[in-house]
From TrEMBL:
Keywords: ATP-binding, Cytoplasm, Ligase, Nucleotide-binding, Purine biosynthesis. This is Phosphoribosylformylglycinamidine cyclo-ligase. Its EC number is 6.3.3.1. NCBIfam families: purM (TIGR00878). GO terms for biological process: 'de novo' IMP biosynthetic process; adenine biosynthetic process. GO terms for cellular component: cytosol. It comes from Cenarchaeum symbiosum (strain A). InterPro entries: PurM-like_C_dom, PurM-like_C_sf, PurM-like_N, PurM-like_N_sf, PurM_cligase. Residues 171-328 form the PurM-like C-terminal domain. SUPFAM superfamilies: PurM C-terminal domain-like (SSF56042), PurM N-terminal domain-like (SSF55326). Pathway: Purine metabolism; IMP biosynthesis via de novo pathway; 5-amino-1-(5-phospho-D-ribosyl)imidazole from N(2)-formyl-N(1)-(5-phospho-D-ribosyl)glycinamide: step 2/2.
Amino acid sequence: MGLTYGGAGVDVKGIKKSQNRIGRIMARTHGAGTEHGFGHYAGMVDGGGGMLIATHTDGVGTKVMIAGRMKKYDTVGIDCIAMNVNDVVCVGARPVSFVDYIAASKNDGDILSDIARGLARGAVKASVPIVGGETAIMPGLFSGRGFAFDLAGTVVGLVPRKKMILGSSIKQGDAIIGAHSTGLHSNGYSLARKALGRLPLNTKMNRGTLGDALLAPTEIYSAPVLEAASKCKVHGLAHITGGSFTKLPRLKDAGFEIDALPEPPEVMRLIKDRGVSEKEMYRTFNMGVGFCVVAPESEQGRIISIFKRHRIRSGRIGRIIRDKGVFVNSKRIA
């Protein structure tokens, strides 16, 4: 048996059970103004005047450990912004504000400034203001004597109730358009680190080093996605993160056939070659596609053109089929 996410310490099924328990507890707080709670990419409440307020919280995960090993801290902030705005746009919401949370083992002004610079760069690209945050210095919480940290944030978005996108309109025959990723983005790093082991971060690759590939910032898709949603008929939006394509059914209990993926980034081929099965790869990593748009076939050309104008490659990677589940090259993965 090859390397798995569970073997790397991330029990996906167990985590889902914990999330469901937490969700049931939190559901007690929902009132008449709660439009949508747990289970999608963002929670939504009534904002008045026909508007919904969407909220999402996410972090960078153990990618911060790669930043620490590389002593390069000025890009993980971009990841933090991306992981949040890419999720909140999945319900059709436009990001309007962001707050960050940095927990660190000690105060290092230079490193904290580097992290902040990354956050600012990401926020500018996503056209969302950072309006506050928290920097918590907690010696004793992190092991080791060096600088260690965690990074997360929360984004707030707005969407007219009539333009909310949850996936209910998805139907058989729809096209699945996939926007290319820049690499691992910010998910699957526990398995990636397990597979790569002690392979030096300065290992040469076709473009730069292994460390460069692992730290490549997550692509920010918010601008082209919102443009596509405003100019085209869009039935569903999915940010491909933890769990990869297995999360597509959260849009709708339908059949998702993925059969035309682009060539995965070199770092993913390296991880696979070091003992991760093909099925586990497609259940854990984005495999070269960071965002999916589900739309009528007649709209795919316009949507691909929109991504191209924003300098993001994309293409038709599959379609909605009758048989429920997620299939990659005819093999069921979920």
